[in-house]
Every structure is written in C-alpha cells, then in structure tokens.
Design brief:
The protein is mainly beta. The protein contains one helix and ten strands, in the order αββββββββββ. Helices cover 14% and strands 41% of the residues. The chain has a five-stranded mixed beta sheet with strand order 2-10-9-5-6, with no helix packed on it. Strand 9 (128-136) and strand 10 (143-154) form a beta hairpin. The termini are far apart.
C-alpha cells in the first residue's frame, strides 16, 4: 500500500490534528476580539444643552378637543461641553420629540442649531405637555432633558 494514503483507526477516542488546531485558533480569536472591544474609547466628556428660544410655547385653544397649534415654531438650541473650557460642540445630533411633533438637526461650528418648523398637538383634555431634548455627539455622553420645551394650551 505504498503511494496511497493510509489512515489509522483511532480507537482511543482522541481528537487529533486539524480539529484541535481550529478550536485553539477560535479561542484565541475570541480573546483578541474581546480585548479590542474593551479598548474602544467610551464617551467620557459630558455636555449640556440649553434651549435659547421658545422654551415655552403657549396658545389659546378654542375648544376642549384635540388642539393643533396654529403657528409653526422654530427652536434654537445651544450645545456646549461641561468641561473647564466650555467649548461648543459641532456636529452634535439634536432631537426634540413630544406633543405630536419630532424635529432633528445638527449643530454648527458655534454649537448651535435652529430646529426647523414644527406644530405641536395636544390631545383632548390635555392642557400641558413637554418635548424631550436628546443630544448625541461622538466622544461625549448622551444628554437628555425630558422637559426641555413646555407646550401649554391656555384656556
């Protein structure tokens, strides 16, 4: 039987050769991937955001039913860091959601964004609601303010 492959029968139940090598490679690969994921930097700096225009939106309602505000509003928001320098953050994604409206924008070099026009809506028998502000930027912890803008139906 020279020249042909000859396989010996493994009667002892041992794992030999290639399968064991693959198992070791997979274990090492998982350890390397875990180490790389651990080394990815997390957002460590904090930021603050301030609504600088229309923090209170109020209109007089004609009835007690659902009420859509007649005017279209724009909100200006300033986003800065909370570190000792208080530098503005450019490229932050700013989202304002609530009262049946949602708007989003990105801050410019000066750290401000004017969110485009939106018309809030209050359901029947609801006279007050809030809009939630969310700010996300690379290298920073996310910022949230659940009562950033007040929406009020005046009676």
């Amino acid at each position: 039987m020279r020249g042909k492959y000859c396989f010996r029968k493994n009667t002892e139940g041992q794992v030999l050769g290639l399968p064991m090598y693959l198992i070791i490679v997979m274990i090492v690969a998982v350890a390397v991937i875990a180490a790389v994921i651990f080394m990815i930097p997390q957002g460590t700096r904090t930021m603050s955001a301030q609504v600088t225009d229309n923090a209170l939106i109020a209109e007089t309602a004609g009835d007690a039913g659902a009420f859509t505000f007649a005017n279209t509003y724009q909100v200006e928001i300033t986003v800065t860091t909370n570190d000792e320098r208080a530098d503005p953050i450019s490229g932050a994604t700013v989202t304002l959601v609530g009262a049946g409206a949602a708007v989003e924008g990105t801050t410019g070099n000066d750290g401000t964004v004017t969110l485009p026009g939106f018309s809030p809506t209050l359901n029947a028998n609801v006279n007050e609601a809030y809009m939630k502000l969310t700010v996300k930027a690379t290298g920073f912890e996310d910022f949230e303010d659940v009562q950033a803008v007040s929406i009020v139906r005046l009676s």
